[in-house]
Design brief:
Radius of gyration of chain B: 15 Å
Largest interface: A-B, 71 and 62 residues
Strand content of chain B: 5-15%
CATH architecture of the largest domain in chain B: Orthogonal Bundle
Radius of gyration of chain A: 27 Å
Order of helices and strands of chain B: EEHEEEHHHH
Number of strands of chain A: 30
Strand content of chain A: 15-25%
Largest sheet of chain A: 7 strands, mixed
Structural class of chain A: alpha+beta
Number of helices of chain B: 5
CATH topology of the largest domain in chain B: DNA polymerase, domain 1
Strand order of the largest sheet of chain B: 2-1-5-3-4
Helix content of chain A: 25-40%
Distance between the termini of chain B: 38 Å
Oligomer: heterodimer
């Protein structure tokens, strides 16, 4: 670690080891902070999976077995939360293996990064980072099976060929099945990576094809699928916890007598006091352990707790918004500058200003945080719906005071993740409670109220935009101030600027062709737990930039699509470093430049497919937005139909998407369909507010999410085919979300002339009568 | 008390006001029915009681005694349930899949009364079931496909 990094760690109250873990675990999230470019310091940069803890593993003996019965078992080490990784990752292995998919079983890996490589399932990077290692696993195993067959027949290996679960010797027409060859092949040395014969893309059987049912489909529709909330043992106890309603608060005193006497209650106990840094620690509180979750919930209502709220007890999100707005109108830390913005503003015939607001948003995974733990003879077992298996293992070990080797984390299916389940506080709670029950299995379940009161929320943000425009409507000067508390505050509470990864999410790396530009990041502090929510800071940045471009186009009386394309400028590949983005999603700037040609193409494609330019009756219209994030290019056109009362109906959404090569196009489509719904949901309704440090939303009646009757019936996903498989992969899970909210608001403007700058929309589209 | 669950008689000792959801999940280990909100707002816990879709998270178990309870584990024995489960898989409806048990139970109740549902029927029957992954368009397609299949096999 460099001296610069040491300084950063020290100034943020992190130990060296802690700093390194967080640095790596977040994919370099803290890489650039306080203007300190750690990546440029002494250490040679590592990109992609190499920059993640434990990197990648491509040993076929780790990831697959072939049984005597011919069944192939493929291990998935990434967490399934709906993105399709338990289908996509094995498809890659099976394809290179020349396996018959109908004879493939999938097995979930427990937490063990030394064995499997990095397991942090976030940042839209599973397929991006593991396509090549998984291909090598499959190819190596295929070559071992071929070698075994060649030995059996005593022929040169070059004369044999694996085809669909068998090895053929074409000269003689002989065949041996994979099952027959399994034992012999397993004893052969694994071929070196440099000697592997990978398939050419025209030889792929499954990769890039789609049409494969998801591997968990049958279990899901029959109720057999195992989520974190599902492990069940006969002697199990069930817990809920009353947690401090304020971040950093603690239990002053409590009376648990009535709760302890309630039906089914086995134990009432205080949870540990809070620690200065939130990180992923459980919150202070009082736990009720009972013979059913329902009994525990009922008994919790009988607890009498006096809280010490601590420093965040005065947090009021309305007051905080006002203070952020104030900051947004004053100069802040300059994070990127080119040309001379001030003189360009002075000489511009016209300037436009706008301010955008996005509130805290809760993940609200349908499966709330939950976990099961038991301890037998010092061996801790945890079943958890975790996006961060290794972090879960290490944090459980730390909190229990045992070695990580004595903790097994079984990764279940995740009933939604969206970033929430990267933080394993719920798993630590289950382990602590099992310890308190002498190792008995304990399931902890968060109620929906717990979830909405104690989430690691999406940040809150004010984005101030100012542009100088010429008589032709062209932008000559651009000022963007982004004010938002950083998610790094959970690791370093004094962080008061967006860190490198947040800046690099559509703010600092904005690639538009503007001669005079300044980007500023004024200070902001955090008063609740801030975490990463699907597509993270791209949400506010894209909302501001894409709304403002629409405003500029309207001002210039130009077509929004044409105006956007002109602003993007000609097709070119931009070094992210030249935009002061030294993070670049942890990827190489050479391999992953910002490609404005690809950005143009998704804009052009979505406009064409959606019938851009169509004329609509008043109250109906189309809105456009485009955004580059997670190394993928996305553009959306949202159609709205707004009635006289201002009720917004979205009949149709088109999305054009370029993520480079597509491993499982069917799951890419489903991710984008879901991103549309989630984007609409947050734009229309999503808001968590605070009073006296307490989240004000209890359940789905106050924290609305989109429902069937509100969802667009017609979502059309237009995937841009990759030129070839040498193109690097982009992310899929997250980049569909950012363009949706601005496209929706731009559509509302097109339909009604009403400009929405503050989310959620709620009844802002209501027309004056 | 005695409960009729998926055509089996099951004896359980439970407080009469304990919601059926926790009897199923915690006392009986039948975990296919999911918890989502505890206030009948999300539909994850939907079961059929005498053929009617009800939210088991707010349904005191005593009220279900003597009635016919169907859960996701048993719905596949009905023609509509099996057709829905098949269509769900063919269309690859689920993403995370957590809400889908409740979705299928609501859809099964719908098909019993409306074998050929319109979009408005689907909206009315399914809007109590939240899917945070956003699979609504595929759920709609799967219900129509299942209805079509069930209609053809009559």
């Amino acid at each position: 670690m460099s001296a610069v990094a040491d300084d950063f760690a020290a100034s943020h109250g992190l130990s060296r080891r802690e700093f390194l873990r967080q640095l790596q675990a977040l994919g370099g999230l803290l890489l650039v902070a306080d203007g300190v470019h750690i990546a440029k310091a002494a250490d040679a940069p590592k990109y992609g999976a190499d920059g993640m803890p434990h990197g990648t593993v491509d040993n076929p003996l780790v990831f697959l077995t072939v049984g005597d019965d011919g069944w192939v078992t493929i291990v998935v080490h990434r967490s399934e939360m709906g993105q399709g990784v338990r289908t996509g990752m094995p498809l890659i292995v099976a394809d290179e293996l020349e396996a018959d998919w109908s004879r493939v079983r999938v097995q979930q890996a427990p937490a063990d990064e030394e064995k499997y490589g990095n397991q942090d399932t976030d940042g839209s990077r599973s397929t991006r980072h593991f396509l090549d290692p998984m291909r090598r696993c499959g190819a190596a195993a295929r070559m071992m099976l071929e070698q075994a067959a060649a030995l059996s027949w005593n022929v040169p290996p070059a004369e044999v060929r694996a085809v669909n679960h068998e090895v053929l010797h074409e000269k003689t027409g002989r065949k041996l099945s994979y099952g027959t060859l399994a034992k012999r092949a397993a004893k052969l040395p694994v071929p070196a990576a440099s000697t592997l014969r990978l398939k050419t893309s025209d030889q792929f059987r499954y990769v890039g094809k789609g049409g494969v049912p998801i591997v968990d489909g049958h279990d899901i529709v029959t109720g057999k699928a195992q989520y974190g909330i599902d492990p069940w043992f006969k002697d199990m106890s069930f817990a809920v916890i009353a947690r401090s309603p304020v971040l950093g608060g603690s239990v002053k005193q409590f009376d648990g007598n009535a709760a302890a006497a309630a039906p089914g209650v086995q134990k009432v106990l205080q949870m540990p006091a809070p620690v200065p840094k939130a990180t992923f620690h459980p919150l202070a509180g009082v736990a009720i352990i009972a013979n059913s979750t329902g009994a525990a919930i009922a008994a919790r209502k009988l607890l009498k707790i006096e809280w010490d709220d601590g420093a965040n007890g005065s947090y009021d999100s309305a007051d905080y918004r006002a203070s952020m707005q104030e900051s947004a109108h004053k100069p802040g830390k300059v994070v990127r500058e080119s040309g001379n913005v001030d003189s360009a503003f002075q000489s511009a015939p016209k300037t436009l200003e706008a301010e955008y607001y996005i509130p805290h948003i809760a993940h609200a995974t349908m499966e709330p945080p939950c976990a099961v733990a038991r301890i037998i003879a010092g061996q801790v077992e945890v079943w958890a719906p975790t996006q961060a298996p290794q972090v879960t293992r290490e944090d459980v070990a730390k909190h229990l005071g045992v070695a990580a080797q004595n903790v097994t984390v079984h990764v279940t299916l995740l009933g939604g993740g969206f970033g929430r389940k990267s933080k394993p506080d719920f798993a630590i709670e289950a382990a602590l409670l099992s310890q308190a029950m002498d190792g008995r299995p304990v399931k902890v379940t968060w109620t929906r109220e717990d979830d909405l009161h104690h989430d690691f929320l999406h940040t809150v943000s004010v984005e101030y935009m100012k542009a100088g425009v010429g008589a032709d409507g062209k932008v000559s000067a651009w000022l963007h101030r982004s004010v938002a508390p950083s998610l790094a505050t959970i690791f370093a509470p004094n962080t008061n600027h967006e860190v490198g990864a947040e800046l690099g999410m559509g703010f600092i790396n904005m690639p538009y062709d503007i001669p005079n530009l300044r980007l500023e990041n004024p200070e902001a502090s955090a008063h609740c737990r801030i975490g990463w929510f699907r597509s993270v800071s791209n949400i506010p940045h894209a909302f501001a930039v894409q709304s403002f471009v629409s405003e500029l186009a309207a001002n210039a009386n130009k077509d929004h699509r044409d105006y956007l394309l002109e602003l993007i400028g000609p097709a070119r590949k931009i070094d992210p470093n030249s935009l002061q983005d030294h993070w670049n999603h942890g990827e190489s700037p050479q391999r992953y430049p910002v490609d404005t040609g690809r950005l143009r193409r998704v804009v052009e494609t979505v406009a064409q497919e959606a019938g851009w330019g169509k004329k609509f009756a008043p109250g109906r219209g189309l809105g456009l937005a485009a955004h580059y994030s997670f190394l993928s290019y996305a553009a959306a056109v949202v159609e709205v139909d707004i009635d006289a009362q201002g009720l917004i109906v979205v009949p149709r959404v088109d999305v054009a998407f370029d993520c480079g090569p597509q491993v499982n196009p069917e799951r890419i489509r489903s991710q984008l369909e879901g991103a549309v719904i989630m984007g609409l949901s947050l734009a229309l309704y999503g808001e968590i507010t605070f009073k006296k440090g307490r989240s004000q939303q209890d359940n789905f009646h106050q924290y609305r999410v989109m429902r069937m009757n509100e969802a667009p019936a017609d979502i059309r996903v237009h995937l841009i085919p990759a030129a070839d498989w040498t193109m690097p992969l982009g992310g899929v899970g997250e980049p569909g979300v950012p363009p949706i909210a601005p496209a929706l608001c731009n559509a509302v403007f097109a339909a009604t002339g009403k400009r929405i700058r503050s989310l959620p929309i709620k009844d802002q589209a209501k027309r004056a009568t | 008390m005695e409960l009729q669950i998926n055509d089996q008689t099951i004896t359980v000792v439970a407080e009469p006001d304990l919601p059926l959801l926790w009897v199923l999940r915690d006392l009986l280990g039948m975990t296919g029915t999911k918890f989502g909100c505890g206030m009948a707002l999300c539909g994850a816990c939907t079961v059929l009681v005498d053929g009617v879709a009800l939210r088991s998270c707010v349904l005191p178990v005593a009220q279900t005694a003597g009635k016919k309870i169907t859960t996701i584990e048993g719905v596949g024995t009905t023609a509509a349930g099996a057709a829905l489960q098949g269509a769900w898989q063919q269309i690859n409806v689920p993403q995370c899949g957590y809400c889908q048990a409740g979705q299928i139970m609501s859809a099964a109740a719908l098909l019993q009364v409306k074998p050929d549902p319109t979009d408005a029927d689907i909206d009315a029957a399914m809007s109590g079931n939240i899917c945070r992954c956003g699979t609504y368009p595929r759920i709609r397609s799967a219900i129509k496909q299942a209805a079509h299949q069930a209609g053809q096999t009559k």
